[in-house]
Amino acid sequence: MMPGYNRNRFVSFYFISYMIITFFFFQNVILGLICNVHNVYSNENEKLVELAQRSFLGQAYDTLTHGSDNFVSYEQLLSVFTILNEECDDIE
Predict the structure, then answer these.
(1) Which of 11, 17, 27, 58 is deepest in the core (most CB within 10 A)?
(2) What's the pLDDT score for residue 5?
């Protein structure tokens, strides 16, 4: 760069603009890779959470029915809703 700079001082603007554009491009590429990896792991985590919720919901239903041919009595539902009303403020 120095021989070009000695011949003409405006050559430095070319190299400085080249460096700025190159750094900007590589910064965006690296940031894009990081965001992409984060999104992949986030989607996998959401799928695992959904599977766990379904499993826990099935276990809760099995516990509620006590193996009685998948039938939930009125008294069982009333007791569940009574507990939910006491413990959850957003359910009324």
Answers:
(1) 11
(2) 67
90 DSSP 8-state letter: T
Listed in sequence order, the residues at least 6 apart from 5 whose beta carbon sits closer than 8 Å to its beta carbon are 11, 12
Q: Which residues contact 25 (CB under 8 A, 6 or more apart)?
A: none
* Alpha-carbon dihedral sign for residues 45, 48, 54, 59: negative
Q: How many CA atoms lie within 13 A of 38 on its CB side?
A: 6
12: CB partners within 8 A, 6+ apart: 1, 5
Tokens of 74: 């009125």
pLDDT at 38 over 90: yes
